[in-house]
Write a structure and sequence with these properties.
about 800 residues, alpha+beta, Rossmann fold, 4 domains, 8-stranded mixed sheet, 4-stranded antiparallel sheet, 34 strands
């Protein structure tokens, strides 16, 4: 609350009038570029009072009147102790008059302030609080200054990435979708180059623009379409280039044992540097016709030997093990390739655009496929904040809801080079200062970190079953973001130098794979999160073979459902728990290891003492009634539980694992106004019936708004609902006595609010969506749970997997 509201209001009115002095001049300039009269105006910057959270209300870029463009929290203030928030608003002349009128009402308001907690208000609460307060009351209470927005105010990436000189640079420009045509016209009039393809979302269009800061400032003034500016990205590769000596004889012998994939087999689509289709170990998996490029300016074959290495890992996992065998080698998936990374010296393409082009090119041929992106987007933020590329991946994975796509994406690596080798001390905290790289924060993808089981000798950085030396984590991300990575897979190990300070790749502890360098050097070494991502893609592709009729939501869920933490990881949890408590320790575990290492056997099959069931269903999250959107339905499933067997086991500890998988439609513009909860189109969560609870009571645990009515937490879960309910791939593990689990034979799936409920003009408020629920139960060996569960599953379709060797 301000000390003197009348004086505060008078000061804000004065600054508003001063800030909008040039509004008519801006409008005249915009008229020259075809901006409709009712859409002309300017952008104002509003800074919060020191150490007070700015409350911009429920405005968005498409709202009538005052339009919120961006909201940046906790910027440095005038002193070290002070922080301030910064919001940018677009205003027309009419909106300025309304804002001034609101300020006059605010100045004269003498009502009470204590009916609502100012510090705890959400930014989308009603502005007038049931009509008792002037409109924008909480905004005025929190604002310190109003001024014209400067170019830097549009910049939402770290400040050190802002172009430092008034020279041409490539900017990523986020535009109001309703003014895209006029923006392009203004750019042409100002002789400013707009590059590449656009990426389209519900309210925003993203384009790349080449301009100097001075020219960009002119474009921002001439076109009210610009919402925010970021640094442009392109894809880069991160791999090890060392290769062993030529092994032509071994290659020929292995090639003679390979049985290629069947016609129509699912494909691993490598979005990389290209693949050498003539490699003798890959020739049966890919041909020249399935080698493509995002742009005709680049070659279609491997220009940097990274894509061919990833192809080998996807197909063989580790050639070191395959070369030790003597029998036939069956390949279950085919390969296809699109070059998405610019060759050295060639013009780059924005990461999101390269991926979009790649998907479009590949889908000219109908096929089941898994996309492997073993690269990261250089130039984009690493804070977990949504970027253009991560949002584009979410949109592609969503596939308009009717045709979702499966993506495996690398978590990224700690940068190393000959001049700046890996520092061993960074491993003590598992690389906590290196945040996971974009686009690995995408909610709809499987993000893959790296673990290592390669410990051939003493003096290596990582112990067996722990994080690979250079794998990144999301440890410093806020609670708004999904848990990432989702899983970890083999990424090799580093050997510590004699000085004990630095480390470098250990050639004996990397992954042997195919190399595209030359016919005389058919093998190469690889590792880190690139190799881990290729291996995850290969496993997901084999799941596609095993279960050809399962949905993408299910296949994605099965991969994570099969993952487990290694004993070394669990030992880390015990150490962390002693330091900070169990819940916080599980948060760190998820940020470093995800849900652990997937297991082929657990993903494919049930056993007598451990069985899994899959529920594939549809839910309509929202409906429109009486002028507003509300939760339409929840689902409750009665599970075919082996009750008699569980009750007979009595106090024996058993385990239940639940995984919920679905895809969201993204609205990246929501993040610009600090509403991560509205990035999603909708949300889902699961809730298991409790011990000694009726089905009716379990179903009544949520009210009509989807809010839990339970007064106490549910015990026995490993990570707890606060952590497990994040993102679109949710999981938790319950452990407890068997007699209690016998009673927990029901599970609810309930919706949560998202932008579909807010942006009614988009026509999504009554859309039905697919989801998959995977539940497994495990008891000690020797106890047959499967037989009774199968007997009870009278109406459950059990799909047997196509045999695929482990």
């Amino acid at each position: 609350m301000v000390d003197n509201r009348a004086r505060h209001a008078a000061r804000l009115l004065k600054s508003l009038n001063a800030a909008t002095t040039d509004l008519s001049r801006f409008a005249e300039e915009q008229a020259k570029h075809g901006i409709p009269e009712n859409k002309r105006g300017m952008v104002l910057a509003m800074e919060s009072r020191p150490n007070v959270r700015l409350r911009p209300g429920g405005s968005r870029a498409s709202s009538p009147g005052l339009k919120l463009y961006t909201l940046q929290r906790d910027l440095d203030g005038d002193t070290v102790e002070e922080t301030a928030d910064l919001a940018t608003f677009f205003v027309s002349a009419k909106a300025v008059d309304t804002l001034a009128s609101n300020l006059e009402e605010y100045r004269g308001f003498t009502g009470p302030d204590d009916a609502f907690s100012f510090a705890g208000r959400n930014s989308d609460d009603d502005e007038d609080d049931d009509g008792k307060r002037p409109r924008n009351f909480w905004l005025f209470e929190s604002v310190n200054t109003i001024r014209p927005a400067r170019l830097r105010d549009f910049w939402t990436d770290p400040v050190d990435r802002f172009p430092q000189k008034n020279k041409s640079a490539i900017w990523e420009v986020w535009l109001r979708k309703d003014l895209t045509k006029e923006f392009l016209s203004a750019a042409i009039d100002l002789n400013i180059e707009v590059e590449g393809l656009s990426t389209e979302f519900v309210e925003v269009s993203i384009r790349n623009v080449r301009a100097s800061p001075g020219d960009m400032a002119k474009l921002v003034q001439a076109s009210p379409a610009v919402i925010e500016l970021r640094s442009a990205s392109s894809l880069n590769i991160d791999f090890l280039s060392q290769a062993p000596d030529a092994r032509a004889t071994q290659t020929a012998a292995l090639a003679s044992r390979i049985i290629g994939p069947q016609a129509g087999a699912p494909r691993i689509a490598l979005l990389d540097t290209g693949v050498n289709p003539a490699h003798p170990l890959l020739i049966s998996s890919i041909d020249q016709a399935r080698c493509l490029s995002s742009t005709s300016k680049w070659p279609v074959t491997d220009h940097s030997d990274h894509g061919t290495k990833m192809a080998g890992v996807a197909q063989f996992y580790d050639l070191g093990s395959v070369l030790e065998t003597t029998g036939p080698v069956q390949l279950w998936t085919a390969l296809e390739s699109v070059v998405v990374t610019a060759p050295p010296g060639q013009p780059k393409v924005a990461a999101r655009e390269a991926i979009q082009r790649a998907v479009s090119l590949l889908e000219k041929q109908e096929a089941k496929r898994v996309f492997c992106l073993a690269q990261t987007a250089s130039g984009e933020g690493r804070s977990g904040k949504v970027t253009a590329t991560s949002a584009a991946l979410d949109l592609l994975a969503y596939g308009d809801g009717s045709k979702p796509r499966l993506f495996c994406v690398a978590a990224g690596n700690v940068p190393t080079s000959a001049s700046e080798p890996y520092q061993v001390d960074d491993y003590r905290d598992r690389n906590s200062r290196f945040e996971l790289e974009a686009p690995g924060q995408a909610a709809n993808v499987i993000t893959v970190g790296a673990v290592t089981f390669k410990t051939s000798k003493a003096g290596l950085v990582a112990p067996n079953g722990d994080m690979a030396p250079t794998s990144r984590s999301s440890e410093k991300w806020t609670d708004d973001h999904p848990n990432k990575p989702d899983i970890v897979m083999e990424g090799g190990n580093f050997v510590i130098d004699p000085d004990g300070i630095y480390a470098s790749p250990s050639h004996n502890d990397l992954v042997l794979t195919t190399s595209g360098k030359s016919a005389t050097k058919p093998f190469g070494l690889t590792g880190e999160t690139s190799a881990a991502t290729a291996r995850a893609s290969g496993l997901l592709g084999r799941l596609h073979v095993a279960y050809p009729n399962m949905r993408a939501e299910t296949l994605r869920g099965l991969l994570v459902h099969s993952a487990e933490w290694t004993p070394t990881m669990l030992a880390q949890h015990r150490i962390l728990s002693a330091r900070m408590g169990s819940t916080e320790a599980w948060g760190l575990m998820l940020s470093r290891y995800g849900w652990g290492v997937p297991d082929d056997g657990r993903a494919y099959y049930s056993t007598d003492n451990a069985f899994s069931m899959v529920i594939e269903d549809v839910i309509t999250p929202f409906e429109r009634t009486a002028g507003y959107s509300r939760i339409k339905e929840m689902k409750y499933f009665k599970l075919p539980w082996p009750k008699n067997t569980l009750k007979a086991l009595n106090q024996t500890e058993v385990e239940m694992r639940c995984t919920l998988s679905y895809f969201l439609e993204p609205d990246p513009l929501a993040v610009s106004r600090d509403r991560y909860d509205r990035y999603r189109s909708f949300g889902l969560r699961f809730d298991v019936k409790r011990y000694d609870e009726s089905d009716d009571s379990a179903q009544a645990s949520y009210n009509a708004n989807g809010i839990s009515q339970r007064s106490s937490p549910d015990s026995g879960w490993t990570v707890g609902s606060k952590l497990s309910s994040r993102g679109t791939l949710q999981q938790d593990i319950w452990r407890g006595p068997a007699y209690q689990l016998a009673d927990r034979d029901g599970i609810s799936v309930s919706p949560m609010k998202g932008w579909w409920a807010d942006i009614t003009r988009a026509g999504r408020f009554d859309r039905a969506v697919n989801f998959s629920l995977i539940v497994s139960v495990k008891a000690p060996a020797g106890n047959d749970l499967f037989a009774e569960a199968a007997q009870n599953a009278v109406n459950v379709l059990v799909e047997q997997p196509t045999p695929v060797p482990l």
